[in-house]
Automatic annotation (TrEMBL):
The keyword Flavoprotein does not apply. Residues 1-21 form the signal peptide. The keyword Signal applies. The lineage of its organism: Eukaryota, Metazoa, Ecdysozoa, Arthropoda, Hexapoda. It comes from Pyrocoelia pectoralis. GO terms for cellular component: cytosol; membrane. This is Uncharacterized protein.
């Protein structure tokens, strides 16, 4: 049984009287994000038996994004503005216990405390792409090697207490000089992030450059997804989460935030994409269809994305109050 303990503290509303008129939109957006996140967490709680490992990882990121930066103080007068107090759950995992404990520990995840504005390369869009291009790369596999294989190999150092293990095939997968798209690209970024979590011997300048390049390519693909009417919700949510975790505000614009809010179904879950697009069913790479036609993977991603956007909106509100 999953136990959720959430407290949406009334203290956060005290600041609204100090917020200028130009930021009233952020206040309204904060309220909508808070309510939507609450809805999704309620759904996951009520249908926990339909969830999988992806959902638990996403909920860990919810905890990272909210708890790590939910303390906005105004001269010490209002204390903590903590919208999301705690997530406690019984996690049924198929992974090695020590690996699971590491990934499910919110304190292990690296969160950029500084939001980065206009730091990505503007690569435009993929002008020749169609819906098929957006939805075809559903499996994160390169030359017969899956990203899960490489992540398992990397995380094996937790069991053996050895240095980070990267085989030649995984080195080519994750660091090869090529342009990838879809889940291959997002999983390359995730792999790099976990290497930083493990404190693998990476030069900071190399890591920052690679992260910026990956998110620039991801932004190009996300914008293409938007131009085509967002046929792939699941992938877009993953893109927003992973690059948002790095602090890139290009993924946190108001239009995309409102779009993500609109995708939440009335019961509080998320679907992978358009139910039917040109007569073809759009399925997630690995998700299971759950109640109300939603998928567990997209629902977990939805929760994490809402938390990410809420963190950014709170930052905008309270940084304005300070100034």
């Amino acid at each position: 049984m999953i136990s959720f303990c959430r407290c949406f503290l009334l203290t956060i509303f005290i600041c609204e009287s100090f917020i200028s008129t130009q930021n009233l939109n952020y206040v309204a957006l904060r309220a909508e994000l808070t309510e939507s996140l609450d809805d999704v967490l309620d759904f996951i709680n009520n249908f926990h038996y339909q969830m999988n490992l992806d959902v638990w990882l996403a909920l860990t990121l919810v905890e990272v994004k909210i708890q790590k930066k939910c303390i906005y103080q105004q001269g010490g007068h209002f204390g903590n503005f903590c919208v999301f107090s705690n997530v406690q759950m019984t996690r049924k995992l198929k992974m090695q216990k020590i690996i699971a404990q590491f990934l499910m520990d919110a304190h292990q995840w690296v969160l950029n405390d500084v939001f980065l504005h206009n730091q990505l390369h503007n690569l435009g869009i993929y002008g020749s792409w169609t819906v098929v291009n957006v939805t075809k790369n559903k499996i994160a596999r390169y030359n017969g090697v899956s990203s899960d294989d490489c992540l398992t190999e990397l995380l094996s150092s937790l069991r053996t207490h050895s240095s980070c293990v990267v085989s030649s095939s995984c080195q080519e997968f994750m660091f090869g000089n090529r342009v990838d798209t879809g889940y291959i690209l997002t999983h390359r970024l995730l792999y790099l992030h976990i290497m930083r979590m493990l404190r693998c011997p990476l030069e900071e300048s190399f890591s920052e450059k690679l992260t910026r390049n990956y998110c620039s390519l991801i932004l190009k693909e996300a914008r293409t997804n938007e131009i085509l009417g967002f046929p792939q919700h699941d992938l877009f949510l993953e893109q927003v989460i992973l690059c948002g975790l790095e602090g890139y505000t290009e993924f946190l614009n108001a239009n995309w935030t409102l779009t993500i809010l609109s995708w939440k179904t009335k019961p509080g879950c998320y679907k992978n994409g358009n139910d039917d697009l040109n007569g073809r069913k759009i399925n997630s790479r690995s998700a299971n269809v759950i109640s109300f036609g939603c998928t567990n993977h997209a629902t977990g991603l939805g929760a994490a994305t809402l938390a990410l956007n809420l963190r950014y909106v709170l930052f905008k509100i309270f940084s304005t109050v300070r100034s």
